[in-house]
Amino acid sequence: MVRRMGMKKHQQQKMIGIDLGGTSIKFGLVSSGGEILRKTKRKTPASKNFEGVLAVIQGEVEGILQEEGLEKKDIYGVGIGIPGVANGKGEVVFANNLFWKNKPLQRELEIRLGIRVKVGNDASLAGFGEFHFGAMENTRNALLLTLGTGLGAGVIIHGKVFHGSHYLGTEIGHMIVGENFYDCNCGNNGCLETFASATALVKYVNHLLDAQEPSSLKDLREGQQKPLTPQQIFEAARKQDEVALKALNRFTRYLAVGMANLINIFDPEVIALGGGLSESGELFLPELRRRTKTMTYVKENNPTEIVIADLKNDAGILGSAMFVLKE
Amino acid sequence: MVRRMGMKKHQQQKMIGIDLGGTSIKFGLVSSGGEILRKTKRKTPASKNFEGVLAVIQGEVEGILQEEGLEKKDIYGVGIGIPGVANGKGEVVFANNLFWKNKPLQRELEIRLGIRVKVGNDASLAGFGEFHFGAMENTRNALLLTLGTGLGAGVIIHGKVFHGSHYLGTEIGHMIVGENFYDCNCGNNGCLETFASATALVKYVNHLLDAQEPSSLKDLREGQQKPLTPQQIFEAARKQDEVALKALNRFTRYLAVGMANLINIFDPEVIALGGGLSESGELFLPELRRRTKTMTYVKENNPTEIVIADLKNDAGILGSAMFVLKE
Questions:
Q1: What is the ipTM score, two decimals?
Q2: Which residues of A touch B195 (CB under 8 A)?
Q3: Which residues of B touch A260 (CB under 8 A)?
Q4: Is residue A7 scored above 50 in pLDDT?
């Protein structure tokens, strides 16, 4: 999807935004007005090897310049969102899915590209994308929660990306909100993402099926060689399957606790929900809003809006591009 | 206690900081270097009547000026922390302990005093005091938690007081962290302050005593005409009373959940603990640090420090004074 096609006035800058994931690397040539002028995708090298990833990025950035007839000097900078912790020096402190620790990503890319590079956390930068061009536009304080395998967050405070003092903040998926029947892979029990994520949903359905609760999902699970997907659970919920509805209800109930906690703490203008599960938002958004409202400290006319995020897969490249331009 | 007695260089400003509580109103004539040049206290009128409080404040501010031989023009401004929500226009949206709703405190005081006035939340401004002159000095992101009747918080982000977008933020006492045997007075179950506050501690001890658990506190409670105090419970814990230790342990365990959540969310340099219970911090601080560490997402060398706040009762007047100077 190419956004904001209208030509913008003078002084438009061009940036390249990169969303580096464990399976793919997404690239966007982005204007400062938020147009995505070109969008490409490459596979993340299977080894996740640092040098290998650098080579893929270098190759693709140079390819984009060539295709677009641009020179390095035409690019204001390259922003890159990584699935882990990046510090203020552009080093990847750790990125578990990539098996990286202490990788000087900014420095190595700047040497290879000859273009300024800024590195940030992927969810934070997706939030920055929604802040500039999506569901969090025209706010000063707003949060993006990404409901995927885990629960990630991008937090904007005072109009800036908030990372915390040591780039370790906004781990909202690991906010403890109760007790759960399984432990989080961080070692704790009761983390929000063990109740409100794709993993959580599937685990809870399996838990119910293992306890012999009757459900159409039982046959489905047994008939296929792979685990149930959230989409299958949502589909069953649409058909009023009891187990699916029970799991969806629990997911919504705990997500509402998380939302209320975040509203009580941050009092943002907007909390936007992104990530794969948000695409089935119609199934839980009304109930989520209702439940959240009962738990916020200020209940009457609480002004925080809960919405589905706008930019889908483009949030990361737009936010990364704006990150190098603005911060 | 008069802080920072050393004379400061040219251009020192003088402000009056006011800490408005349900039982007393504290006043401080404060220099921009953080010296408290004069400190006074008046009773809050029993009726909590808005006009009555305005008259007390006006009388006391004028008295301070007279005693110090100062004129209105010598005072940069008056900052005032209120026990409730104050919006950006200096209106008290609500302050339950004062029975106030929608009171134009800034405007009415400016008319009466002829001095600029700024109004903020008391815990937020106490945090701003610790940020300038206390346990949170030299930080960019830091939190003060006040462990009193409830659990309040002052949050500094990017070096500024953080209120949220609608001045409803930092209600950290109402973060839901589990299930409790009694409901919070906000209507929810599981709020942090129902586990980690003076009220919580006393309620849990009563709960154990009512369940006939043997304890020296049982006789104490029955022998006195008033409820147990946190100090009595701490004293019993020092003497290894089982019920007191059990209550202290639960208090610490849940406070650690709150601390870990806040570290995972904010990644601050410092979390400072203030309020009455923090004066017995030696009883729970080592265990609190240990437990918090096991629950933070980044466990190895997590850099957030947990400390006891410095300024005690002066935090509010210092923070209020700095608030009118800086924000």
A1: 0.92
A2: none
A3: 176, 188
A4: no
